[in-house]
Design brief:
Low-confidence stretches: none
Number of helices: 9
Distance between the termini: 26 Å
Radius of gyration: 21 Å
CATH topology of the largest domain: Nucleotidyltransferase, domain 5
CATH class of the largest domain: Alpha Beta
Order of helices and strands: EEEHEHEHEEEHHHHEHEH
Oligomer: single chain
Shape: globular
Helix content: 40-55%
CATH superfamily of the largest domain: ATPase, nucleotide binding domain
Strand content: 15-25%
CATH architecture of the largest domain: 2-Layer Sandwich
Strand order of the largest sheet: 3-2-1-4-5
Number of domains: 2
Mean pLDDT: 94
Amino acid sequence: MTTNITILGIESSCDDTSAAIIRDGYLLSNVIANQDVHKEYGGVVPELASRSHQANIIPVVDKAIKNAGIKKEEISAIGFTRGPGLLGSLLVGTSFAKGLSLSLGKPLIDINHLQGHVLSHFINDLKNPKELPAFPHLCLLISGGHTQIIRVDSPLKMEVIGNTIDDAAGEAFDKTAKVLGLPYPGGPVIDKLASEGNPKAFKFAKPRIPDLNFSFSGLKTSFLYFLRDEMAKNPDFINQEKNNLCASLQQTIVEILIEKVIKAVKDTGIKEITLSGGVSANSAVRSQFSELGIKNNWKVYIPPFAFTTDNAAMIAITGYYKFQKNLFASHDFAPIARFTI
């Protein structure tokens, strides 16, 4: 195998500007610039996001190269997120990657953001090398925009075997948090409040969707109607029961995810499971899937918190595997807002 493959990854799909350096599968640096400007609007504002990316991308890439202790000339190729994501944000990362590629004379590698999430488990640490998932395995990808079960046969061969037919799990967290009057992003706030609540306090509808697909819009509606009815009896119901509401809602979402993964294991016979995406940072998701793995003798891989949200390390590791197959992008590649595995 070729060594000294050094990949610069650039991630700009939403509101985080990130750059990372991976050499031969090992992470040398990972720099992320967050955008706090969106909090006051209760969600990401695309125009503000793309402007912030323009301001952040040069210092972020520069810092990633310096933190890695390399010279930019040592970069073997530049991986960039082509999609899915916000088009304006993607354009900033794509344009910068193309310009840097031309100036350094280095090849480009276009990366599917979702594939990056799946391969985040293959980011290794020089100081503390870890066991990597075997193939095939099942990945439960849970984020604000996606909820999928993916069969992973190799780093570059993946098949979605279960998908959400409406809202994603992260979207359900954020939208119900908004109904409760919680700040954005709502998922982490619900997680925190749920730790002080009773997950069995209230029951909410769990939609019966065939096969391995998911649906969360019915849960969201059930939650909304439940609040409406209870507040008609007690206007202060939300304030009095906020912790229990968060705990019960969170538990319902986790149970929906677990039921589908159990079915996927039965259908495929694959007992090696990885979690990825922003919702995999949820404490109940992490603890209950870990317990499920022990109970059923599965191997369950829980991602480090640093790799649950959008980051360039996952883009760089995907670029590393594509580099080995000479899967390069031309300079006329355009970003794609909607992109599937």
